[in-house]
Amino acid sequence: MADALKNVIAQSLECPVCLETFTDPKILSCSHTYCKACLDNLLECHGNDQTLQCPVCRAETQVPNQEVSKLPASLALKSLIEDMKNQSQFCTNCKSEDKPQAAVYCQDCSKYFCSTCHNKHSQWPDFISHQVLAMSEIVSDEVSLRRYRKCRKHPKEDEECFCSDCRRFACFRCVVMEHKDEGHRIIEAAVYKSRHLKSIEDLKSKADKKCLCFQKYVDFINEQKEHVSNVQMQCTHDINKAFEESVQQLTERKELLIVEVKGKTEGVEKELDEMKNSAQEHITHLTTIADMVTNRTKVPSDMDALAAHDTLCQDLQDALKQEDPDYKQPIQSSRKGKGVSFKENVGMNELTLGKIVNAVAKNIALPTKNSMDAMVITPDGRMAVGCHTGGVEIFSADGQHQQKVLKDVKIRGVGFLSDDRYVILDHSNNVTLYTLEYSKLNVMFETLSDGEGGFAKLTVDGNDQIYVSYWTAKKIQVFSPAGGKAIREIPCDRYKPLEIISYNDYLITASGDKIRLIDKQGVVKYELRGLGYFPYAAVSQGNTILIAKVKHGVGLVSIDEYTNELKHVQNLVIDYKIEKPGRNWYYLQQYRSGEIAFCTPDRLYIFH
Question: What positions does the domain B box-type occupy (predicted)?
Fold first, then answer.
């Protein structure tokens, strides 16, 4: 009975997290106890949070200043653990009351043996292969015991079974009495542990893969930081160089001016000195004559004179639910930094150091000159440029021309449905659907002809609704992918929708020098006016709005970022010189990897 009690006590001294005997046990506010090191690990998983969630009951405990050491210690458990460690282990096989101390422990029999019992045990043929541990190894913690927990209802019985439905271990007697009903799935405890360990290994493998994924992301960010740092160093070097050159020019200019001033002033000083000397000579002459005269008339007499500065697994599962890392968000930020450079002002009348510019563009000639009529990002993140002469040209983010599709279709607008089908608006204002393999689908849309509606443009929203805008009719028709008649119309009161872009639950329209954000009923929510130039809008990968302002007459483009309320955020490109096309027609888009694509009828510019 004493051995059974001892086993029960030993089981109670195990931490529910690490399943080892408590070390420095700390008590949570819910009264559950864990090792201090285990609580430190749990708290570290929650970052800067000062709240610990109990892995057993999920109750929360406040940890002052994130220091687990300040939680109350379980002094009773500490004392009991020390007593258990210091208590000698006696042979559990001997029948006499005066039992000798154990010399070994048999992992397979789950019994302690004295030297005599061990000798007999080792001679039994069936027990030769049993794993036997020396007590000296156990006491010194060189090895750990593999033993079944003892049943609390039947202390002499091992919990050798596991009920999958009740989620608990049980001895054979408990299984017969309490888990015999239909629906109780009983397996050996060893089998369950083996499966559980396999599940833990799989979970650990997934966690390792997730960590590797995020580590690659961290390495990528460090790489981008290094690129930006190199740009900063280069700009600093260039600025210092320009400054030194400017200082040198100013110094030389200063010396020339000093010499010039000195040349002009020294002559004046010389002239003044000559005048002064002449006056002094005159005074001296007068004094001398006066003295000669007065000395003759004065009566001779004597004269005198007188200047300072999870709950474990659950927590791991929750962590695994986290989305892979979105590579945009780390790509959008790195491009802006690498595009920064220093441009010295040369040939200007006034002496200035120069200015910082943050736009470097790759300039790609379109395969067909003066052909671009539409541009949109593809489902796989490339750029599709639609040509009115026929076909859709596909470009990668680094500007490589990769393919041409739908070669015989004259394109006026391009869009994509969520299943990656092409939506094409041709030069007769007909909308047609094509498969991924560029096969035309038998779906008809009752759009307005060029004569009825005028020039048309197209966009597709996140719900696969197709919008076709008309300049002359001053309205937008909305179609479902099933085709047929428009399911509704959106009026564009007093303005022509020259451009149309889907944006969340809204549409962005461009007309003249104005950008409008309208809802799906046509109500203008926000308006940006007075831009002074022709504006072209796009939705950024960060869900903000990009607007390109083009000075067509002089071939300059500026690109700015705005909020969803059309409030200015920042300048991205300032007066970038482009090759002026013959036709005043442009498009703006952004690659998923962060590059901004600006297309003229002749060329594609990709800003990094």
Answer: 86-135, 146-189
Verify that 334 and 416 share a domain, yes or no: no
Strands of the sheet with 132-134, listed across from one edge: 111-113, 104-106, 132-134
* Token pair for 464: 């696969």
Q: Which of 101, 102, 106 is nearest to 132 (CA)?
A: 106
Task: Let me know whether 274 and 380 are in one domain.
Answer: no
DSSP 72: P
| pLDDT, tens digit, 9 for 90 and up, residues 346-359 | 444 555 555 555 56
Both tokens of residue 68?
Answer: 């687990």
For residue 376, the SS3 value is strand
Place of tokens 């000669």: 292
Same domain for 371 and 234?
A: no
Tell me the pLDDT tens digit for each residue of 294-319.
554 444 444 333 333 446 556 556 65
Which helix (H) or strand (E) segment is 428 a member of? none
Asked if residue 445 is part of any domain, the answer here is yes
Q: One-letter amino acid identity for 39?
A: L
- The answer to whether residue 70 sits within a structural domain is yes
Q: How far is CA 569 from CA 25, 336, 562, in A?
A: 54, 14, 5
Phi, then psi, of 295 in degrees rounded to 5: -60, -25
Phi, psi (deg, nearest 5) at residue 226: -65, -40
Give the residue numbers spanning the domain of 276.
204-284+317-345
589 with 516, same domain? Answer: yes
| Residue in 584, 553, 581, 591 with CA at minimum distance from that of residue 366 | 581
